[in-house]
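Tip: read the tokens left to right.
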């Protein structure tokens, strides 16, 4: 269940949506896949003979994009990645292919690979706003805040009415501890798109950190109006009530939080503290022990930074 998004929406992918159910029989997709695979083999044979064949390069990219789309439609992210990497061996400087590959890598949390792929794309398309947005997204994933901010600001110069980008810039400011700038960006995001959850959530989280508990509850309430199972907002509301010493209300929200986001250790921690205040010692100890366990597990899952994507080479 949702806890809280901490970054802007993912960049749009060039080769189309991830593949919602369409009602077509599986045999239809199997036939299409077979035809694109056969076409790709033909294009690759031509490229093996002449690597500069423009028509074959375009065909290789187009066929590979469709095969990757089909793999994603079937939930086969690894296959989609392999397809795009195979195509990149033939078309290492194709902007459309590099864009799709970078986003695929980012979605699979191969952040170092995505960063390298999109760096090549940025060299080819230095002024493309969508490229700036994609790079900002990856830089934020990598914790490279200055680089993420630079790209997001450049994107917003070209697309000033993008609510998600203002939210993303707000998150960057928030991570830089520039609270006033973060609040301004979150409020701008809400002005542009009033019906949302995450900008309200982040404003609530800032208020909570500043000890403004009534303001925190008000903003979390806006989040919960649209998403009643938002684990972060439920936990934040419970924490705010705990700080206000309103333990019965705190328990109500924290109990909902541990159901909505069972792996969110802060919910269990504050529920444990709340239960202790309510005189339920055994229940309190159980929740505090679970919070400690979850915190330890989270530490073990720290990003390894492994590179799974070899450097691009010509065939």
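Filled-in amino acids:
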């Amino acid at each position: 269940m949702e806890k809280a998004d901490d970054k802007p929406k993912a960049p749009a992918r060039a080769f189309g949506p991830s593949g919602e159910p369409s009602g077509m029989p599986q045999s239809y997709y199997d036939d299409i896949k077979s035809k694109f695979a056969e076409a790709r083999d033909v294009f690759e044979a031509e490229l093996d003979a002449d690597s500069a064949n423009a028509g074959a390069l375009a065909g290789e990219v187009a066929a590979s994009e469709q095969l990757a789309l089909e793999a994603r439609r079937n939930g086969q992210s690894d296959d989609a990645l392999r397809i795009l990497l195979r195509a990149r061996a033939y078309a290492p400087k194709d902007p459309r292919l590099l864009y799709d590959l970078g986003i695929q890598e980012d979605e699979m949390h191969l952040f170092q690979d995505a960063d390298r792929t999109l760096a090549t794309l940025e060299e080819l398309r230095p002024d493309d706003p969508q490229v700036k947005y994609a790079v900002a997204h990856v830089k934020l994933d990598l914790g490279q805040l200055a680089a993420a901010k630079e790209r997001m600001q450049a994107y917003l110069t070209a697309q000033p009415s993008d609510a998600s980008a203002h939210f993303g810039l707000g998150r960057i400011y928030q991570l830089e501890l520039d609270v006033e700038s973060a609040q301004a960006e979150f409020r701008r995001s809400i002005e542009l798109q009033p019906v949302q959850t995450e900008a309200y959530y982040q404003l609530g989280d800032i208020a909570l950190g500043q000890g403004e508990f009534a303001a925190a509850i008000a903003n979390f309430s806006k989040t919960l109006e649209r998403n009643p199972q938002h684990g972060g907002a439920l936990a934040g509301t419970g924490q705010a009530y705990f700080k206000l010493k309103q333990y019965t209300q705190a328990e109500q929200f924290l109990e909902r939080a541990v159901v909505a986001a069972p792996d969110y250790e802060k919910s269990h921690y504050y529920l444990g503290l709340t239960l202790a205040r309510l005189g339920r010692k055994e229940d309190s100890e159980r929740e505090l022990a679970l919070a400690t366990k979850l915190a330890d597990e989270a530490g073990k899952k720290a990003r390894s930074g492994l590179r799974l994507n070899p450097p691009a080479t010509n065939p």
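The mean pLDDT is 88. The CA atoms of residues 12 and 130 lie 8 Å apart.
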